[in-house]
């Protein structure tokens, strides 16, 4: 596995109870019109947006690399 810092694309969900607090807290662009109710910053379906693994999900990388990606705590 090529080792480098993975930058992942978060999943943001616009929900009726949403607002702009998540955008402010996580430094997202402040001019967004969407009222974000959930922001999944890191989960297995996030896509990597940089480097050799760009476009692949964390689930794909875990399936291919296992402990080389996640460390000893991975079952």
Explain what the structure shows.
- The structure is a single chain.
- With 75 residues, this protein is α+β, with helices and mostly antiparallel strands.
- It has one domain.
- The protein contains 3 helices and 4 strands.
- It has helices at residues 21-25, 58-65, 67-70, and strands at residues 8-9, 11-19, 36-40, 47-48.
- The strands form 2 sheets. Strands 1-4 form a two-stranded antiparallel ribbon.
- The longest helix has 8 residues, at 58-65.
- It is elongated, with a radius of gyration of 15 Å.
- The two termini are 18 Å apart.
- The model has no long low-confidence stretch (mean pLDDT 87).
What is the beta-strand fraction?
15-25%
Estimated radius of gyration: 15 Å
Report the end-to-end length measured between terminal Cα atoms.
18 Å
- Count of distinct strands: 4
């Amino acid at each position: 596995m090529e080792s480098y810092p993975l930058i992942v694309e978060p999943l943001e969900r616009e929900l009726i109870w949403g607002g702009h607090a998540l955008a402010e807290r996580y430094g997202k662009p402040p001019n967004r019109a969407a009222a974000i109710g959930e922001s999944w910053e890191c989960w297995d379906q996030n896509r990597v947006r940089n480097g050799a693994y760009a476009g692949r999900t964390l689930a794909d990388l875990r399936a291919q690399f296992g402990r080389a990606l996640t460390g000893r705590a991975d079952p």
